[in-house]
Amino acid sequence: MSVTLLTFGCRLNAHESDAMEHLARLGQMRDEETIIVNTCTVTAEAERQARQTIRRAHRENPAARIIVTGCASERAADAWAALPGVSRVIPNTEKTLPATWGLPDEAGQAPPPSRYIRALLQVQQGCDNDCTFCVIPAGRGQSTSMPPGEIIPKARALAEAGHCEIVLTGVDIASWQQKDMGLGQLCRHLLDEVPEIARLRLSSIDPMILTPDTGDKALWDLIADEPRFMPHLHLSLQAGSDLILKRMKRRHNTADVAGLIAQVRHLRPDTGFGADVIAGFPTETDALFQETYDFLAEQAIPFLHVFPYSERPGTPAARMPAMPKATRQERAARLRALGQTIRDRFLNRFVGQEKTVLMESPTTGHTPEFAAFTLPQAQPSHRGRLERIRITAVQDGMLMAEIP
């Protein structure tokens, strides 16, 4: 029996692929080779790559059983089922259920082994937002929050398995809510109930959860005084122009984001900020693009995840006046170049400092601020260890370091 996972898209997909691989192996698929393709629908390119991968997998191994799941196949199951070699399309809501893989319910109670040093822990699913460019709600459904009674045992099991760092993930973790608890209270509860967690990190979050006046107070408290809560926030920003944000139907504006960044930096000056940014959104004139460029430069966000706008059929944005694809690509390149300049300036502040880092390989990993570093090949550490390093230089967008 052989189970191969081919995963596209977000951290949540990666986490769910771990669960599917674990369940598929437990399900004793001994008589056939199985290839599971976990698709993404955020961009047309992600869908194209997944289709291409399926065709290539069937061509190279025509006897293999190909199973397709994920957000792209959720939106067009029949089209994916018609691809060569595909024997089954599994809905997103069923892909991590033990019964889908011929197992009893109790088989899904314990977390699967994680292939990642920073263990992913899903706390939320789906999205209730209605952004004009996004099809994720069609692939993931409405927002649901896992109860603490399910989250705490999984976090404890991951810590006991040796994971020093846990990353809370989901489609929109900022919307996590259980009775009178919000995301910040969940984080505090996790750290209190599972003291073995050395480091806790969040995946991408909606900026509205941290607006200075109305944001999650418990989350602000963690940023201010909890050393186990990592000084790294990745914002689902999308644009730095208020008019474009309004046309995207985002809930925040640039003043909200500038305020939260200023407040976080006041509490933890070296916090590493990341942001998702769409270049060339419909109706984005040169002037509106410049607003985004100037906002990102002013806010000095070091870790930008930039991608050109990709039409998603059926969304309101797909009916708006589109920018030429060449313009989208050129603007994305300009934002990436800006991001590299800001990143290098951010990294240089750490030269000469010592940091406790999580080794993701014998010579590489990330600082608490999520800055990538590398050790000399002649001075390796051990994968999974919390190591003390000294930053010596910046080279090619990465920190150079040594063990003191």
Question: Please, could you describe this protein's structure?
Answer:
The protein contains twelve helices and 17 strands. The chain has a five-stranded mixed β-barrel. A four-stranded parallel beta sheet has the order 1-2-3-4, with helices on both faces. Strands 5-8-9 form a three-stranded parallel beta sheet, with helices on both faces. The protein is an alpha/beta fold and 404 residues long. It is globular. The model has no long low-confidence stretch (mean pLDDT 92). Helix 6 packs across helix 7 and helix 11 runs parallel beside helix 12. The protein folds into three domains: 104 residues, Methylthiotransferase, N-terminal domain (Rossmann fold, 3-Layer(aba) Sandwich); 237 residues, pyruvate-formate lyase- activating enzyme (Alpha-Beta Horseshoe); 50 residues, no CATH class. Strand 13 and strand 14 form a beta hairpin.
Strand order of the largest sheet: 13-14-15-17-16
Quick one: CATH class of the largest domain? Alpha Beta
Helix content: 25-40%
Order of helices and strands: EHEHEHHEEEHEHEHEHEHHEHEHEEEEE
Rg calc: 22 Å
Shape category: globular
Distance between the termini: 46 Å
Number of domains: 3
CATH fold assignment of the largest domain: pyruvate-formate lyase- activating enzyme
Query: What class do helices, strands and sheet pairing give?
Result: alpha/beta
Tell me about the largest β-sheet: 5 strands, mixed, barrel
Extended strand count = 17
Protein name: MiaB/RimO family radical SAM methylthiotransferase
Pfam family, one: UPF0004
GO molecular function, one term: transferase activity
EC number: 2.8.4.-
